[in-house]
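> example.struct
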C-alpha cells in the first residue's frame, strides 16, 4: 500500500476507484483493513474511496506521547486530503473514526457524514468510561508510557501470549492491536475521552447518517442518539441486537446503507446547484 509524509509523519493509505471522494476512518487500535469490503463496493458504486491508517495505528507512524489529540488528528487529516487532492469528500468513520468524521465536518467542507458508534462528549460505555477516567488508571498509563520496555504492544507476540484466533475478524483485530504501541493505544483513548463535541454539532450542515448498535457496551448508543438529535436533519439508524462491531456484524446491510446515504447526498447537491 502507498504511504505519504504529512507534516513529518508517514501515513499508510489505500485509494481505489474514480468519482466523488469518500474518506474512511477506522476505530481505536484498528486499521484500514476493516474497510476492504466497503472500498470495493464504493468503487463499484462510482466513488473514489480512500481508507487511512490513522496516525498511531496500522502501518502509519506512531509518534510519542503528547501528539494524540482530536485537534492534531483533524489537522493531519485535512492536510492529508490536500496532499492527495481529495476535494469535498464524504467522511465515514467507526468509533474513534466516527468522532473524527464529526469533527472533520466542523472544520472541512464535506459532502456527507457517516458516523458509526461515535463518541460525542467523551463518555464511553459506563464501566469502560469509569475505568479510563479514574486517577489510578491515568497514573498506570503515564507509568507505562515512561517505561522503555513498553515500546510496542507487539510484545504480545512473546512466549505465553494468547494465540491468534482463526476467526478472520477477531484475528484482524488481534493483529492490529499488536501493531499498536502503548503511546498510540493510550493516546487514542485519550483522544476520544478528553473532548466535548456536543456543543458544536449543531453547526454540521452536511447530510449526516448516524449508525449505532443497541447492544454496544464499548460506546453507549446514547452517544449516537445525542449526535443525531443535535445535528440538523441527521438520520439515526439503530440496530437493536448489534454491538460495537456493527460494520463487521452487518457488512452487507451497512454497505447498502452507506451507499444509499451517499447517493442521496449527491442528489441533494445537484438540486442545490440547480436551484
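> example.seq
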Amino acid at each position: 500500500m502507498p504511504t505519504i509524509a504529512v507534516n513529518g509523519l508517514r501515513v499508510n493509505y489505500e485509494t481505489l476507484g474514480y468519482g466523488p471522494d469518500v474518506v474512511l476512518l477506522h476505530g481505536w487500535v484498528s486499521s484500514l483493513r476493516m474497510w476492504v469490503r466497503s472500498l470495493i463496493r464504493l468503487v463499484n458504486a462510482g466513488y473514489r474511496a480512500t481508507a487511512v491508517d490513522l496516525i498511531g495505528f496500522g502501518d502509519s507512524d506512531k509518534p510519542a506521547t503528547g501528539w494524540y489529540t482530536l485537534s492534531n488528528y483533524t489537522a493531519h487529516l485535512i492536510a492529508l486530503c490536500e496532499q492527495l487532492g481529495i476535494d469535498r469528500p464524504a467522511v465515514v468513520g467507526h468509533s474513534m473514526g466516527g468522532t473524527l468524521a464529526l469533527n472533520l465536518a466542523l472544520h472541512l467542507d464535506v459532502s456527507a457524514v457517516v458516523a458509526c458508534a461515535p463518541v460525542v462528549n467523551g463518555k464511553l460505555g459506563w464501566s469502560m468510561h469509569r475505568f479510563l477516567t479514574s486517577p489510578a488508571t491515568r497514573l498506570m498509563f503515564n507509568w507505562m508510557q515512561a517505561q522503555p520496555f513498553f515500546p510496542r504492544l507487539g510484545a504480545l507476540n512473546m512466549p505465553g501470549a494468547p494465540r491468534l484466533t482463526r476467526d478472520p475478524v477477531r484475528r484482524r483485530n488481534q493483529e492490529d492491536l499488536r501493531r499498536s504501541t502503548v503511546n498510540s493505544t493510550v493516546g487514542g483513548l485519550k483522544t476520544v475521552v478528553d473532548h466535548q463535541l456536543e456543543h458544536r454539532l449543531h453547526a454540521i450542515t452536511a447530510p449526516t447518517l448516524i449508525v449505532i448498535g443497541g447492544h454496544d457496551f464499548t460506546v453507549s448508543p446514547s452517544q449516537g442518539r445525542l449526535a443525531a438529535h443535535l445535528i440538523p436533519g441527521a438520520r439515526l439508524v439503530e440496530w437493536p441486537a448489534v454491538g460495537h462491531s456493527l460494520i463487521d456484524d452487518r457488512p452487507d446491510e451497512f454497505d447498502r446503507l452507506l451507499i444509499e446515504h451517499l447517493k442521496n447526498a449527491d442528489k441533494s447537491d445537484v438540486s442545490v446547484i440547480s436551484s
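> remarks
Residues 3-274 form a domain with the Rossmann fold fold (CATH 3.40.50.1820).
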